[in-house]
Amino acid sequence: MAIVSTPSKACTVNPLKMSQPIGGAFAFMGLRGAMPVLHGSQGCTSFGLTLFVRHFKEPVPLQTTAMSEVTTVLGGYENIEQAILNIHNRTKPEIIGICSTGVTETNGDDIDGTIKLIRKKHPQLATFPLVHVSTPDFKDAFQDGWEKTVARIVEMLVRAPTSEVERDPARVNVLPGCHLTPADLDEIRTILEDFGLKPSFLPDLAGSLDGHIPEEFTSTTIGGIGIEEIASMGQSGWTIAIGAQMRRAAEAMQTRTGVPFRLFERLCGLLPSDEFIAFLSEISGRPVPPKYRRQRGQLADAMLDAHFQIGGRKLAIGAEPDLLFDLSSMLHDMGAQVMAAVTTTPSPVLERIRTDEVLIGDLEDLEERARRQNCDLLITHSHGRQPAERLKIPFHRAGFPMFDRIGAGHQLSVGYRGTRDLIFQITNLLIADREENHQPCPDSWRTSTPPLKSGRSYTDASERSIA
Amino acid sequence: MSSLSARILDVFNEPGCAKNADKSEADRKKGCTKQPKPGSAAGGCAFDGAKIALQPFTDVAHLVHGPIACEGNSWDNRGAASSGASIWRTGFTTDMNETDIVFGGEKRLYKAIREILAKYDPAAIFVYQTCIPAMIGDDINAVCKAASRKFGKPVIPVNSPGFVGSKNLGNKLAGQALLDHVIGTEEPDYTTPCDINLIGEYNLSGELWQVKPLLDELGIRILSCISGDGKYREVASSHRARAAMLVCSKSMINVARKMQERYAIPFFEGSFYGIQDSSDALRNIARVLVARGAPEDLIGRTEVVIAREEARAWAKIGSYRPRLAGKRALLITGGVKSWSVLAALQEAGLELVGTSVKKSTKEDKERIKQRMGQDAHMIDDMAPRDIYKMLKGAKADIMLSGGKSQFVALKAAMPWLDINQERSHAYMGYLGIVNLVAEIDKALFNPMWEQLRRPAPWDGIAKHGHPNPMVLAQTDGQAAEPPALLEVSRRAKRVCLCNTVDRGTIEDAIRLHGLTSVDSVRLHTNAFGGCCRSRIQDILRAMSGSQPPAMQQAAE
């Protein structure tokens, strides 16, 4: 049981957190033909856009209502109207998603009211899908923006069943958290299809940001789940929610359509994957395909080969709650000790993280704790590169943003196969670090020499056994 | 806010700005606040611009007063390089929450300043104002003043909230903050008659260091670079320089002009992009320094260095010219750098099919016309879709632009090169231009492009889920090659032996673009059209009858 705490300092140093509106916009990016809009000054959009582009190395649709000083004072009605009309005319989207920002939440723009007026004034927009989510920058974090947006999309776009609907037991809704990559979604899709299930992902980033080359150039998203498919999600037999952040959307779906849901807080690791596969076998009524028996064996073997390295590691990890919970639990289950854990926003999973304290803080906190606890593995997003350099410990990049390496969208960590590959990746990092930085020398064990800077000693039993 | 709007007006009233000088009196009063269009705007805000302009000061802590979005979404994302301090890359923000918005954020800001000084002891703190504290009326000038007095360290307010305007305005407001609070507040340890300031140079990818050795060789000291690899003390004492070079012409013109007014430091505009411009810049530096009392022989020594460096660079570029000659480039930048990069490309033998002039002044456009000729294709504002069409239609061989528009080219399977601030290569001076040409060459001649433009050979094989009977027949031991495989080998046959272009590539190009002549095939493929001219003609003849009209339509 971890204690969740918040530091009392006034200045955030080396932020771990990213803002809520871009988390919201990110959710819209998993919808086909979508154009997310941030209702704020043009910088709000520009920073988010740059971040997404650098992470995915993909064109990213994100627009702005371009609020100026004057319109901020007078209210943003006209900016919203112009933005919607402009986008509707120029890029012909299938849906426009509007996320508010700190600027427009502070001046108190009534966006829902504005949308109603716009629909009345412009008949061509009367039934056009316009979804607004309230996501002020000065509250919550990236993950919360995603959570609220997906829930809102469910509430606004999923058709409520009129009478007793025809349910298709083979159809399954999947509500993935924002910590899953396009590769993770594709892996889950394959697994579900292998059980004869037909999944609908909301949002489906694998359709839009997996890095494919479209036939035509469009300024909206180039794939993802379509509006019609979202509308019909009420006909599914089950909803699978992944990550605690998706409880809200899953509940909204159940309330609206009566589709029961099962929440998987984790999909990385042997036991969580077992649980997932068992559930699929149960709802599909099919035996587990031999492919997954083999994959399970491979994961077990990977764990055997890797535990020498991962066992006893002192982990410092900074990530949004669901990713933090998933990765830290998997490594804890492999024998690592979670010595420093920092996250961005409150969540029910935090107190279940296997460590003493989870801090809602920044990378300065993480770096300081990692140093104090002699951690020898750092996991966080790309901004961990500076702390890692100073700490001189192996650094695995996970989460958003990952702007200084390529292939962010194809990092896989779910299911037997994903866990297996992630374990290999982290273990190889540790082996390389030992070879580069911790070769024994004649004085390594001499007691008179000052203790090594790294907290890891060479008398470690696990290391000797494979040396 | 009234002082802020007064300051914006003052910044806009820029006699040194050529674009401004072109305007009528009434237009000038309106300033340059061309309002961005909601729903079709791109580019950063004034805060972004201010941060870009000042962040390269390496020993300064840059503290952003605002909610998490402003710093959390953007920190440590610039490619400027530092020779020493690293504090500038640390992200500091007050991360304002709801309580701060209700009760005001001044106290948190003050505490944040105190924490940074205690923990990191930077040479100075720059405090950036953002939209929300500006809306709720946080007076950062007062907080900074109080903190400076209390802690005895310079704490500089940079009043440039995002919603007042564009990135460019932010650059200027940042310059204004330097003029108001920093420049002239300290004295240099010593001065020399060869001290210069570089203004508006950000040392991206360390490119200033491609030029600095030459200045060192000539005994020219960069007293202060604003702001690439800059130090607080250097800019604070920059008023003792003998002359200044304004590098990125539009972003900090106000700094150069006002330093001329206040401290009589003459400045000239120049660029280190391209051979000619680098030489001009060095000449001008020598000239203005000598005019201000530097030893006369500086001019002669500069000429010697120029001659040596030019010869070296030309020799290196010369080896690329035959390969790059006639290749067509499309240059899409903010427009400011257009003409200087343009000159560099032409030196390498590339042909410019278009350049953006969105932010260029009349004078810039004149220069572009001079370089490109009267039929210069100047693009004011081109929709990504149109750029894509242009590239897909092979009207250009390579695009050079900023990171945000890269995919327009890459998704059309066309070569692209980053020439904006996020780039990872250094392109300055005589070394840089050679670098740029080498990068263009690498991009253009990568064998990958040909593979990417080719459709998958299995498209159409076993279309309807049935195995192809011919393939089965073959496994039964019959000799007949299945038509699909036949087709693959037919298409793989080399047509152009010099540049290894196969029949399939040429056929696809003909079909896609509706080509009818050998020359147009040469334009659209790598085919040389020399010894293979007759073979290409044969293909054209064979295909002219068989082209379905639907294809032709699609090609349009």
From TrEMBL, chain A:
Belongs to the NifD/NifK/NifE/NifN family. Residues 19-430 form the Nitrogenase/oxidoreductase component domain. The keyword Phosphoprotein does not apply. InterPro entries: ChlB/BchB/BchZ, Nase/OxRdtase_comp1, Nase_comp1_CS, Nase_Mo-Fe_CF. This protein may play a role in the biosynthesis of the prosthetic group of nitrogenase (FeMo cofactor). It comes from Bradyrhizobium diversitatis. Residues 445-460 have a biased composition (Polar residues). Residues 437-467 are annotated as: Disordered. Keywords: Nitrogen fixation. Pathway: Cofactor biosynthesis; Fe-Mo cofactor biosynthesis. This is Nitrogenase iron-molybdenum cofactor biosynthesis protein NifN.
From TrEMBL, chain B:
Residues 20-41 are annotated as: Disordered. Residues 45-444 form the Nitrogenase/oxidoreductase component domain. Residues 20-30 have a biased composition (Basic and acidic residues). Pathway: Cofactor biosynthesis; Fe-Mo cofactor biosynthesis. Belongs to the NifD/NifK/NifE/NifN family. The keyword Lipid metabolism does not apply. Residues 495-541 form the BFD-like [2Fe-2S]-binding domain. InterPro entries: BFD-like_2Fe2S-bd_dom, BFD-like_2Fe2S-bd_dom_sf, Nase/OxRdtase_comp1, Nase_comp1_CS, NifE, NifE-like. SUPFAM superfamilies: Helical backbone' metal receptor. This is Nitrogenase iron-molybdenum cofactor biosynthesis protein NifE. Keywords: Nitrogen fixation. Gene3D superfamilies: BFD-like [2Fe-2S]-binding domain, Nitrogenase MoFe cofactor biosynthesis protein NifE, C-terminal, Nitrogenase molybdenum iron protein domain. It comes from Bradyrhizobium diversitatis.
